[in-house]
Automatic annotation (TrEMBL):
One of its GO terms (cellular component) is cytosol. Keywords: ATP-binding, Glutamine amidotransferase, GMP biosynthesis, Ligase, Nucleotide-binding, Purine biosynthesis. Pathway: Purine metabolism; GMP biosynthesis; GMP from XMP (L-Gln route): step 1/1. Homodimer. It comes from Nakamurella multipartita (strain ATCC 700099 / DSM 44233 / CIP 104796 / JCM 9543 / NBRC 105858 / Y-104) (Microsphaera multipartita). The keyword DNA-binding does not apply. Its EC number is 6.3.5.2. It is an enzyme of class 6 (ligase). GO terms for molecular function: ATP binding; GMP synthase activity. It catalyses: XMP + L-glutamine + ATP + H2O = GMP + L-glutamate + AMP + diphosphate + 2 H(+). Catalyzes the synthesis of GMP from XMP. Residues 2-196 form the GMPS ATP-PPase domain. This is GMP synthase [glutamine-hydrolyzing].
């Protein structure tokens, strides 16, 4: 039977054997895979590991703090945060096409990471290894070659190019997601990170339908924080796969608040149930929870005057709107 402690011991020993006394870097995304991979490598080689967290400005409320404060407190990992919000916003300026957004975000991410890696390389005197949180399904998928057309060119921090001059360390290559979560718990990582729902690498950038800018990000971030807070309070997190919150930034509708007419934007809730994200059904969340979310968003986020529920399965809809 499957025992997280023995898997951990095995992988820690394996990493130690491969890495020896060399230096290692890792890009953290805030997601569970890179967090567990880095924590495991840290157990193996301690301060030979430096982690890089790129704040691309497309994160949700509290995510940076979760990595910088909670994750670092739990692991003792040496973390370098790169403030790259302005750079990403400049590169995304005026861009509305989803695949173009993804390509720009992926490209900028690689550039920022390469610069950070070069600096760490110079400071540490030679970095030989790069940790990646590749899981077994990722290995299978990339070797699959099914010949189907790309629907979305997924970008995540695992998507670094092969020509980076590092040898890869992938301690989660044989594991499935639930096993990685068990290892994360065993490693004492923050529960909110270990249990986190999937969140796309391009972040809120692909949840604003329309061009991305700082004001729109602030609106979406506020609405998203309310949704997550209410869902957690209602205890439904474990019943659903994830719940993208989407801002229709180019759509306006008329509303009324107090004595005044409003002309604001809709927020879309996209709660889905799924086994593997390949197919999904819309989640039948309790009406009173939906009502609380709607009341709070329209009451607390002044740019939003309408909250709508996406009741499309996948297919035909994808989970994300872009
Ligand atoms: P779709 O929208 O294709 O999403 O039904 C399937 C799953 O993948 C996530 N997703 C992404 N993850 N980079 C990621 O790391 C991306 O570019 C990306 N696009 C979608 C989505 O949240 C869902 O879990």
């Amino acid at each position: 039977d499957w025992n997280p402690q023995s898997i951990l011991d095995e992988q820690v020993a394996a990493v130690r054997a491969v890495v020896g006394t060399e230096k290692v870097i890792c890009a953290l995304s805030g997601g569970v895979d890179s967090a567990v991979a880095a924590a495991l490598v840290h157990q193996a080689v301690g301060d030979q590991l430096t982690c890089v967290f790129v704040d691309h400005g497309l994160l949700r409320a509290g995510e940076r703090e979760q990595v910088e404060r909670d994750y670092v407190a739990a692991t003792g990992i040496h973390l370098v945060t790169v403030d790259a919000e302005q750079r990403f916003l400049a590169a995304l300026d005026g861009i509305t096409e989803p695949e173009t957004k993804r390509k720009i975000i992926g490209r900028e991410f690689i550039r920022v990471f390469e610069t950070a890696a070069a600096e760490i390389n110079a400071a540490e005197g030679g970095v030989k290894f790069l940790v990646q949180g590749t899981l077994y399904p990722d290995v299978v998928e990339s070797g699959g070659g099914t010949g189907t057309a790309t629907i979305k060119s997924h970008h995540n921090v695992g998507g670094l190019p092969d020509d980076l001059q590092f040898q890869l360390v992938e301690p989660l290559r044989a594991l499935f997601k639930d096993e990685v979560r068990a290892l994360g718990a065993e490693l004492g990582l923050p529960a909110a990170m270990v249990k986190r729902h999937p969140f796309p690498g391009p972040g809120l950038g692909i949840r604003i339908i329309g061009a991305v800018d700082a004001e729109r990000l602030a609106v979406l971030r506020a609405a998203d924080a309310i949704v997550r807070e209410e869902m957690t309070a209602a205890g439904v997190d474990e019943q659903i796969w994830q719940c993208p919150v989407v801002l229709l930034a180019d759509v306006r509708s008329v509303g009324v608040q107090g004595d005044g007419r409003t002309y604001g934007h809709p927020i879309v809730l996209r709660p889905v149930s799924s086994e593997d994200a390949m197919t999904a059904d819309w989640s039948r969340l309790p009406y009173d929870l939906l009502a609380r979310i709607s009341n709070r968003i329209t009451g607390e986020v002044s740019e939003v005057n309408r909250v709508v529920l996406d009741i499309t399965s996948k297919p035909p809809g994808t989970i994300e709107w872009e």
